[in-house]
Amino acid sequence: MTPVPRWVGGACVGTFLVLAGVFAVDLIGKGPGLDELPPLKPEHYDPATVRKVPSAMMFDGAPCSSCHEGLEPNTGNPKERGVFHEAKKLQHGRNQHCFNCHHRADPTHFADFDGAPIKLADVQLLCAKCHGTTFRDWKNGSHGRRTGHWDLAKGGPRTTVCIACHDPHWPVFKAIEAAPGPHVNPRARERS
Ligand code: HEC
Ligand code: HEC
Ligand code: HEC
Ligand code: HEC
User: Fold this and answer.
1) 63 CB less than 6 Å from ligand 3?
2) pLDDT in tens, 13-27
3) Cα 109 to middle of ligand 1, angstroms
């Protein structure tokens, strides 16, 4: 076997150094750089849920009782909803009846099938009336959102209540504007 000539080693080291220099100052890849994108809008990285869950049953800043106390319980014809709530758009499939959810005699509560009142704080039980399977999924953590900790000592998992995401009167989500795509190097884009 003939020995490898000495200059081959030198040539290897030399080539390596030249290439290192070429890459270090980016001689080959000089291009237009990254896209200039405007900064993301705050709603695109806001971790809050779509809705704020009210802490009390209020209408226009007034408690329900301020008008409903003393009112005869409404017979609940869905076509006659009283001038005050006319603006309330109900888009909930065939569930088009206020008193499927609201308690007939006590507007601060919701009603179960047997008429038992359901508190606002337990509103998921109202939804469970008709969405049993989704409610079961939600309880198991496969519907909705779980935050918090697996470790019970650190506070355990936290659930998000249905109406933090779904508007009870219009539960299907309205279109949400998508965030713009990620920064793309135009050089890479031209090649593809
Ligand atoms: C500013 C006054 C006012 C306030 C506050 C108010 N309501 Fe009413 N509400 C009315 C009137 C008036 C009617 C119609 C009553 C009637 O026709 O007998 C009505 C009717 C209703 C009905 C029945 C609609 C139908 O189709 O018959 C529901 C349900 C209802 N209100 C829920 C609430 C809830 C829940 C609250 C509190 C979060 C509330 N209201 C607060 C004035 C008010
Ligand atoms: C699917 C169940 C459901 C139906 C049907 C329903 N509501 Fe509600 N409604 C709720 C829940 C839950 C809340 C409280 C939480 C919230 O506003 O997010 C509420 C809140 C309200 C409020 C107080 C807050 C606000 O948005 O002003 C009024 C008033 C009201 N409903 C009136 C009505 C009327 C009138 C109808 C019939 C046209 C109706 N609701 C039908 C579930 C329902
Ligand atoms: C009285 C029965 C009833 C109650 C209570 C009720 N829903 Fe519904 N919900 C329905 C019906 C009926 C539909 C329409 C189903 C369809 O059109 O296929 C529906 C549709 C929906 C949809 C859309 C489903 C789809 O596939 O498009 C969502 C989301 C929803 N409800 C969420 C809720 C939430 C959240 C609550 C509690 C605040 C609730 N519902 C309470 C009866 C109910
Ligand atoms: C963290 C947000 C969030 C929470 C909390 C949440 N949902 Fe949903 N839900 C969604 C999303 C997102 C969809 C899919 C909507 C779509 O495809 O348009 C959905 C879909 C649904 C549907 C349509 C059928 C299905 O299973 O896909 C129903 C019914 C429903 N939710 C009911 C509920 C009920 C009842 C609760 C509470 C027990 C609840 N949701 C809690 C976000 C949520």
Assistant:
1) no
2) 999 999 999 888 877
3) 12
